[in-house]
Amino acid sequence: MLNKKSVDDINVKGQRVLVRCDFNVPLQDGKITDENRLVAALPTIKKLIADGGKVILCSHLGKPKGEPKPELSLAPVAIRLSELLGQEVKFAADPEVVGPNAKAAVAEMKDGDVVLLENTRYRAEETKNEDKFSEDLASLCDVFVNDAFGTAHRAHCSNVGVTKFVKTAVVGYLMQKEIDFLGNAVNNPERPFVAILGGAKVSSKISVINNLLDKVDTLIIGGGMSYTFSKAMGGHIGTSLCEDDYLQYALDMMKKAEEKGVKLLLPVDNRIGDDFSNDCNIQVVKRGEIPDGWEGMDIGPETEKLFADAVKDAKTVVWNGPMGCFEMPNFAHGTEAVAKALAETDATTIIGGGDSAAAVNILGYGDKMTHISTGGGASLEFLEGKELPGVAAANDKD
């Protein structure tokens, strides 16, 4: 999965190039409120324009569930992309995505022109990966480029199905970067290799913990999922998040870590609240000593120091999931302490998308990280060691 052809391995002059981008941006009253994903797609688009390709862009936006919804149209994206690229991005407004507008626009294209298709999820076949829509998309192009890592863990028409009907299928720069950083971190890391897992649930990270214990030198577990471990060890966790079905699993993972010689670090203290709000009463208690009626909301100061020390000498760090309820300022201390520790280390630091990406950006440490993944679910499945259909579908290097 790590050895794929990219846009640097092909010549697209005079060719029609369909590029699957991730333009799933937040919209408010038809205006884009965060354009990071558009900016991230520019290097691949500019490369294809410069090489004389006829560039046809496609993406999904939100969940229209197989029918045209005007509020989920990609029209605002075409307007903003035109400004960012400094040239017109022609919008093909077909409710069926590949319709008369798209066909006419593509037929008129000159080398270096750009067309954007309508939201791929307007078609019910898209998420079912059915051939009819895949063939429609393939009929517009000679070459396919997948640059949407955020959907790489799903097999849809616009990222996987289309490759059955197009001979040349490669990855874009954004996708290549994800493969390089996440793939190499997991399969060929510079050591010591430390992984930090947080977030609410053990159940959503089971395979990740299991896979990483075979690869890391140190595994740090914080966030809501740590209370399941705390309870499994006989601790008292009050009303904290806990998945009772996974208590034995938590003990099994601790045993596996011991057998593998992996250092498994869990919180030694917690910031707790008597209500799930920023303004609740707060105290710090030792792990496993949370009184009834209180819940764990963040790691405590001792744990912050323990976790920060653990990444000091690391050479590779992968972080997925916050240490607490970072959206509430009083419970963002733990997540911020970890972000600060990563910003100060010389290690290659990789943030695995989703909430952890949001957290480092909100807390102002985004530019200090080596790589922030653009895919939440996709990066998690990468860390699980799963094959991602969207990556697997691209041509292998010879």
Automatic annotation (TrEMBL):
GO terms for biological process: gluconeogenesis; glycolytic process. It is an enzyme of class 2 (transferase). CDD domains: Phosphoglycerate_kinase. Its EC number is 2.7.2.3. PROSITE patterns: PGLYCERATE_KINASE. It comes from the Bacteria. GO terms for molecular function: ADP binding; ATP binding; phosphoglycerate kinase activity. Substrate binds at residues 22-24, 37, 60-63, 121, 154. Pathway: Carbohydrate degradation; glycolysis; pyruvate from D-glyceraldehyde 3-phosphate: step 2/5. The keyword Protein biosynthesis does not apply. Pfam families: PGK. ATP binds at residues 205, 296, 327, 353-356. The keyword Cytoplasm applies. Keywords: ATP-binding, Cytoplasm, Glycolysis, Kinase, Nucleotide-binding, Transferase. (2R)-3-phosphoglycerate binds at residues 37, 121, 154. It is found in: Cytoplasm. One of its GO terms (cellular component) is cytosol. It catalyses: (2R)-3-phosphoglycerate + ATP = (2R)-3-phospho-glyceroyl phosphate + ADP. Monomer. Belongs to the phosphoglycerate kinase family. This is Phosphoglycerate kinase. It comes from Blautia luti.
